Amino acid sequence: MSFDTEWARCAPWIGAALEHAGRTHSLADVKAMVEARECRFWAGREAAMVTEIIEHPQSTDLMLWLAGGDLDELKNELRPMAEAWGREHDCKRSLIVGRDGWVRALRDEGYSPLARLVMKELNG
After folding, report:
1. For residue range 23-81, what is the model confidence (pLDDT) as tens digits?
2. In angstroms, rounded to a whole number, what is the distance separating the alpha carbons of residues 1 and 118?
């Protein structure tokens, strides 16, 4: 199946995740980043995820940035594939930007809270 077909099928899940991620990007922005290989798109049967490798001076991290759809598929299929891919690219940690529910959902998978992100609109 082509990327465009898979992207269109999964766009509602990625779009919903963007709503919870602060609306910093549009779907078109994310698609362009995937096409430019700045991010990686993971399409499942009932879920989708977008990851990004972030290089810091002391660590390279796999950021699970956007995820939506079936939670079991995200946890048990897409996330492990993304983590394996991150290891292949020398990532030392896997980070998730998401709602508090991810802490509960991945508690038994070795994830623990690192920080809390808070937001305030300055022009609104």
Report:
1. 889 999 999 999 999 999 999 999 999 999 999 999 999 999 999 999 999 999 999 99
2. 39
Residues 6+ apart with CB under 8 A from 105: 71, 75
Helix (H) or strand (E) holding 5: helix 3-20
Decide if 65 contacts 97 (C-beta within 8 A).
yes
Tell whether pTM > 0.70.
yes
Render 65-124 in DSSP notation, one character per residue.
EEEEE-HHHIIIIIHHHHHHHHHHTT--EEEE---THHHHHTGGGT-----------S--
Cα 26–Cα 49–Cα 79 angle in degrees, nearest 5: 155
